[in-house]
Amino acid sequence: MSTITIYHNPECGTSRNTLELIRNSGVEPTVIHYLETPPSRDQLVALIAAIGMPVRALLRQNVPPYEALGLAEDSFSDDALIDAMLAHPILINRPIVVTPLGTKLCRPSELVLDILPDPQLGAFAKEDGEQVVDASGKRLR
Question: What predicted TM-score, i.e. pTM, was given to this entire model?
Answer without folding.
Answer: 0.94
